[in-house]
Amino acid sequence: MKYxxxxxxxxxxxxxxxxxxxxxxxxRKTGDTWRFDVTISHPDTGWDHYADAWxxxxxxGNQLAIRELAHPHVEEQPFTRSLSGVRIPAGTTQVxxxxxxxxxxxxxxxxxxxxx
Length: 116
Fold this sequence. Notes:
Layout: H1 2-16, E1 21-30, E2 33-41, E3 50-57, E4 63-68, E5 79-86, E6 94-102, E7 105-106, E8 111-114
Antiparallel strand pairs: 1-2, 2-5, 3-4, 3-6, 6-7, 6-8
Signal peptide: 1-17
Keywords: Signal
Protein backbone atom coordinates (compact mmCIF):
# COMPACT_ATOMS: atom_id res chain seq x y z
CA MET A 1 0.00 0.00 0.00
CA LYS A 2 2.81 2.40 0.90
CA TYR A 3 4.51 1.82 -2.47
CA UNK A 4 1.25 2.29 -4.39
CA UNK A 5 0.75 5.68 -2.75
CA UNK A 6 4.33 6.69 -3.53
CA UNK A 7 3.93 5.66 -7.17
CA UNK A 8 0.71 7.69 -7.41
CA UNK A 9 2.49 10.77 -6.03
CA UNK A 10 5.29 10.45 -8.56
CA UNK A 11 2.86 10.15 -11.47
CA UNK A 12 0.73 13.04 -10.21
CA UNK A 13 3.69 15.34 -9.43
CA UNK A 14 3.44 17.40 -12.64
CA UNK A 15 -0.21 18.13 -11.88
CA UNK A 16 0.85 19.74 -8.58
CA UNK A 17 3.81 21.60 -10.09
CA UNK A 18 4.12 25.35 -10.19
CA UNK A 19 2.17 26.90 -13.11
CA UNK A 20 4.00 29.04 -15.68
CA UNK A 21 4.41 32.63 -14.54
CA UNK A 22 4.53 35.76 -16.71
CA UNK A 23 7.46 37.69 -15.21
CA UNK A 24 7.68 40.62 -17.60
CA UNK A 25 6.02 42.04 -20.70
CA UNK A 26 7.44 44.70 -23.02
CA UNK A 27 5.08 46.22 -25.56
CA ARG A 28 5.87 48.33 -28.61
CA LYS A 29 3.52 49.70 -31.24
CA THR A 30 4.67 49.59 -34.85
CA GLY A 31 2.20 51.19 -37.25
CA ASP A 32 -1.18 49.55 -36.73
CA THR A 33 0.14 46.49 -34.91
CA TRP A 34 1.91 45.67 -31.66
CA ARG A 35 4.94 43.61 -30.64
CA PHE A 36 4.95 41.76 -27.31
CA ASP A 37 8.14 40.46 -25.66
CA VAL A 38 7.03 38.13 -22.86
CA THR A 39 9.30 36.62 -20.20
CA ILE A 40 8.06 33.41 -18.58
CA SER A 41 9.35 31.32 -15.67
CA HIS A 42 8.39 27.66 -15.33
CA PRO A 43 10.16 24.59 -13.95
CA ASP A 44 10.20 22.77 -17.31
CA THR A 45 11.28 19.14 -16.94
CA GLY A 46 11.05 17.99 -20.58
CA TRP A 47 8.48 17.17 -23.24
CA ASP A 48 5.93 15.90 -20.71
CA HIS A 49 5.92 19.08 -18.62
CA TYR A 50 6.80 22.48 -20.06
CA ALA A 51 5.44 25.97 -20.73
CA ASP A 52 3.97 25.53 -24.19
CA ALA A 53 2.21 28.84 -24.95
CA TRP A 54 1.27 32.34 -23.90
CA UNK A 55 -1.56 34.51 -25.12
CA UNK A 56 -2.86 38.05 -25.14
CA UNK A 57 -6.40 38.61 -23.88
CA UNK A 58 -8.57 41.69 -23.76
CA UNK A 59 -9.87 42.68 -20.32
CA UNK A 60 -13.02 40.60 -20.89
CA GLY A 61 -10.92 37.47 -21.42
CA ASN A 62 -11.25 37.27 -25.21
CA GLN A 63 -8.14 35.95 -26.95
CA LEU A 64 -6.47 38.49 -29.25
CA ALA A 65 -3.32 36.50 -30.12
CA ILE A 66 -1.40 33.40 -29.09
CA ARG A 67 2.29 32.43 -29.18
CA GLU A 68 2.84 28.67 -29.21
CA LEU A 69 6.16 27.49 -27.76
CA ALA A 70 7.66 24.63 -29.74
CA HIS A 71 9.91 22.99 -27.15
CA PRO A 72 10.81 22.80 -23.45
CA HIS A 73 13.16 25.38 -21.94
CA VAL A 74 14.74 23.20 -19.26
CA GLU A 75 18.13 24.95 -19.35
CA GLU A 76 16.84 28.44 -20.18
CA GLN A 77 14.89 29.94 -17.26
CA PRO A 78 13.37 32.43 -17.32
CA PHE A 79 13.01 32.80 -21.09
CA THR A 80 11.65 35.52 -23.37
CA ARG A 81 9.77 35.03 -26.63
CA SER A 82 8.22 37.63 -28.92
CA LEU A 83 5.10 37.98 -31.01
CA SER A 84 4.74 40.70 -33.65
CA GLY A 85 1.85 41.82 -35.81
CA VAL A 86 -0.71 41.70 -33.01
CA ARG A 87 -3.85 43.68 -33.74
CA ILE A 88 -5.40 45.37 -30.71
CA PRO A 89 -8.88 46.92 -31.01
CA ALA A 90 -8.87 50.73 -31.15
CA GLY A 91 -9.35 52.40 -27.80
CA THR A 92 -7.91 49.47 -25.82
CA THR A 93 -5.68 50.71 -23.01
CA GLN A 94 -4.97 47.43 -21.19
CA VAL A 95 -4.58 43.75 -22.08
CA UNK A 96 -3.80 40.61 -20.11
CA UNK A 97 -1.05 38.07 -20.79
CA UNK A 98 -1.59 34.46 -19.71
CA UNK A 99 0.80 31.48 -19.82
CA UNK A 100 0.02 27.79 -20.38
CA UNK A 101 1.87 24.60 -19.63
CA UNK A 102 1.56 20.98 -20.62
CA UNK A 103 -0.16 19.14 -18.94
CA UNK A 104 -1.62 21.75 -16.55
CA UNK A 105 -3.27 24.12 -19.05
CA UNK A 106 -3.76 27.86 -18.69
CA UNK A 107 -2.61 29.48 -15.47
CA UNK A 108 -5.73 31.20 -14.07
CA UNK A 109 -3.56 34.18 -13.07
CA UNK A 110 -2.82 36.75 -15.76
CA UNK A 111 -0.56 39.78 -15.92
CA UNK A 112 -2.27 43.07 -16.77
CA UNK A 113 -0.33 45.26 -19.18
CA UNK A 114 -0.95 48.96 -19.82
CA UNK A 115 -0.56 49.85 -23.47
CA UNK A 116 1.57 52.94 -24.10
